[in-house]
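Aim 2, interim progress. The first record below pairs a target sequence with its structure tokens.
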Amino acid sequence: MIGNELVATIYEDAEYIGCFRDTLDTLDFDISEKIFDEFDANKCFENCRIKGFLFAGTRSINEVSYLCLCGNKYGAFKKFGNEYCECTCKGNPTTFCGCSFSTYYNRVYRILNRTKSYELLANYIGCFSNLLPSLLISSKSWPSNRLMSKKCSENYNSNYSASFDGSYFMCPNVINLNHTINEANCNKLCSKNSNETCGGSKALTIYSISKNSFSVKCPDLVYVNQSFTCDLRLELINKSFNFSIDFDDGQSIYLSGNKSFANIYKKYLLPRFYTMNIKLLGSNVNLNPQVLVKDELSNNLNGTIILKDDLIEHPQFGEYIGCFVHYVFLNFRKELLITKISTRIPRVCIAECKNQNYTYALIGEDFCICSMKYGSLNAYSDDSCECLCYHSPDSFCGCNAYFLVYKIKNRQKFEITQGIYKGCFDSVHKYNGTYILNYNNNEICLKKCLQLGYKYFSTHNKYYCNCEQNLINETDRIGEDNCQLECPSNQNQTCGGYFGPKSFYEIKSIILSFSALPSHIRKINETVIFKIEINSNNLIYLMTINFGDGTQKNFSMKDFFIMEKTYNQKGLYKIEVYFLNSEFSVELDILSNQKIIGDFILKI
């Protein structure tokens, strides 16, 4: 039978990270190369690795053209399920590529500093009667026994893959060898690979799946002449192992054993960035962990001037309600009074909806909608909306069909969250929460840790966001020249240094309230007392108050400010306080029965 002798080795020379959405011309990677006809993902990985990039991605454009993507960041437009990145790569039958549907999806890999690797062996064991038809899964776009075996291992952690009727498969963990039948019953060619058979109309072609895998954990940062250990963890078909290890300093060793773990001992004599190469002999599996070796800590603390990151201001322009999704086109939601705004910067969207007297602003990846209601929409977790805004890299704008909802009317208080820079620190301190954010910057990390209820945060190695409840030790402070890595999504900010040094911040909140006393109906020439209160964290703020009658006053305040005012004409007056590009206001209706309205209005 055609293809039934196949014993396939399935290997990707990179560490698979996940499936991420992108744009047509890719905004997620630094460079892209279009390749026609034969496309081998492993060659793409090697091409990106030679050029010095950390990550690579693949995407099938159509059946004859593909994209090889290289970059030092990824993931700005949201992670999706693996099923969105399961298009065939014509030149490599053992791996998937990303896909181009109505939206574009990249299959993303780490190609440098890889700490995990595996290969699969798919062994044909026979033709079996189909006794479990309810477990069949359709795979019409990519059926081949190699890819079915890969998916059964990658998505279902199964011991076997079974193909059926040319384009279906299942992933059993146990099979009954007594159910083997004549090979003639497995006569259906795989619909996308005429060199293999994929079962029959009543029969299963079954392969067993075995795996060689290992991982390594090395310290990110060491110092010259400092001894350190890298820990290996092994899951091998053959329990014995033989490794070759190139330390990238002219030294190479071989390591053998028969246990599920091993240790590598090393120290470097010169300061620089080292990329090891650890290869399991007799297989394709290899890793390339990186270690930064420093001569000594820089303690140049004198004369350091902090300009860029000393204070991050994060005003709450609206009251955040949550992340929601729509499954049908929004215009069919009759409860939404829709006004579309061209810009997708959150504060601009909120301002426009406020100016048009709406109660809610709905901010999506490609729309801004003003509404009086949002109740028929479906709530989802906040991380479903964590895609960066195209024109505002410090903010989220929702993802695809997921969008953010803000309440923008009748707010009595205005809250600002601050990230107060404490300095550059070098510590092995273990954080409560560490997140690798490929769109990282200090404001994004601030929002992440604030949302999770932490009091401090730090960034390091560009992509790492650390959340913590306790202040780091002052003895761990080092010179600012150690924290000079530009943040991936905001080059005006620095996100620590390589591995060790961290840009450390304290999270504080400022709440400003504006009130008018007394709260009953006003009369002409009656004295009105305006009171502004703020917990300013010992900072002094400059503000301007516009009394709505053509007069205004500039003032500075630290904790609270009180002023008196009389009006000698009847009418409706809006009293506005200008603060951090915003207006905080109350309305006074002289000689009428209307109530006082506390409100917050964005000033653009």
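The second target in this work package is listed in the same format:
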Amino acid sequence: MPLFLHPWALIGLAAVPVLVLVYFLRNRFRPWLVASLMLWRLPAQPRTVGARRERLRLPWLFWLELLVLVLLVLAATSPDWNIRRGGRPLIVVLDDSVSMRARSGGTTARERALRFLEQRLRQERHSAVRLILAGSTPRTLEGTGADVRSLRQRLEAWRCEAPASDLARAIGLATEWSRNQADVLVLTDQPPPEGLNPGEGLVWYAAGQRVANAGFVGAARTTAGERDRCFLEVLNGGTGTHQTELVIRVGTEVWDRKELSLAPGQRHRWVFNVPADAPVVTAVLGSDGLEEDNTVWLAPPPRRMVSVALALTNVALKSLVERTLQATGLYRPATQVPDLVIHEGAARAWPARTWTVEWLGPEEPVLFAGPFLPDRTHPLMEGLTLQGVLWAGGRQMEAPDLVPILLAGNVPLIAERAAAQGARHLTFVYDLEHSTLHESPDWPILFWNLLHWRGSRLPGLRDTNVRRGAEVAVVHEGRGVTVQGPDGWEWTADTGLDPCVFVPPRAGLYRVNRGAEGEWLAVNLLAEGETNLSGCDRGVWGTWRVDVRARQESAPWSTWLGLLACVCVLGHLYGVLAERRGAA
């Protein structure tokens, strides 16, 4: 806005109504009696004076005189306009973790940080503003507008729902973009970590505050025979003793209620059992500084039994394998189309989605005591030690597309081949009579891994209870998958990918529909770093660069206004002379 150094000069605008009055009166004539009008030159018939009001006809010279008058008054006030020229670009790193939602004194850390940013932009101008959301994985927001209005629109994506904030990576990304040409502003609720000293060009603003808070940092629900075992862990993340109430509901009914009194940093763990057919378990803590970690949901875990068909001709081997499968708790005999077939010799034609294990007994077994070379990234090898084991193998695998999973030197003992529609065909080379693997703990581990791996590829969710930010895989076998989540969130899977993977955007209960079937999916925060608010603080560290401030330059407009008024006066004189010349 203009700044008038001499605002009292505006009183000169009082001459405007005087000018209007002059033109209004000059158009009224007094009557004179004359003998004759014969020798008069009358280029135009003057208006007759009377009581009737007529519209005032103002010539163009009037408007020019009015403009001259206004320009002279403005020039007398000595107006100065402050021209704000853009400074350096600004890169803002936004802590997108849940702890920024902690409320203290009626405001959240996010709201206080946003006010600091807006105040900065009103005081100092930047040529561009870039935003980086520092969540579990930093990401940038589109746009570089530096005005507050456009900034607020872009900041709608700053929801503070991430289970963690990788500020180090986000600051590294901002520094790489900066190249000493931009300033970096970090908005968070924690003071700078040890080893990071914000200096010139890096400003760290912490908008947090230590508040009382207790939240869930651990929760699980697993199968345990005919019951489900539930586990809960609560942490006091505040600086003082915190008292709260824990309410557990199974479905809509209250299962248990407990009063908790926790010292700073104290944990409370609780294990309890619910029936296997129990619906979703909900645990709720009392209200405190951070509401997002006060609720957890535990959905029923998947109970997928793998149907296995045994086509083994060796009676002793078949009996041993069947007893081992029964001990896993994941086995059921196949009655129709099996999920897994363990056979000797040539296999019959099974459906495309059926997995097979071909058991090869070498005619001339070779005894191996090691070293064994397992593929530790393969789910079948998880937990195997093979220490002190004798393995009688030696028969070469003829299929060229088999990929070794376990080798003794350069001799493959277990191999796999991928087939269409996600099926797997495994080959075991093992002689029962001369080997000792079946007498070691690795034998049941191997078969449990086999059934668990196969069960994870059965239709449905692999896991029904996950942490916020984790990927969720759904095996659909060609049937359409739709997911409905909190706040009306929906997602439809691409049936061309099996399994399909998605990341739930926030904590809560989700309904995963696969064709006509549906399962509950529980997504919980369970982030100890966000529940612990004892390290929150408020303050500013670092300094802005000296030349980043928008330069204020005063521009004296009086001279220009005076020159413009002179031009208008010259135009007025020219107009008056032209009229007189025409009248002559």
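The first strand starts at residue 3 and ends at 4. This observation will shape the mutagenesis plan for the next reporting period.
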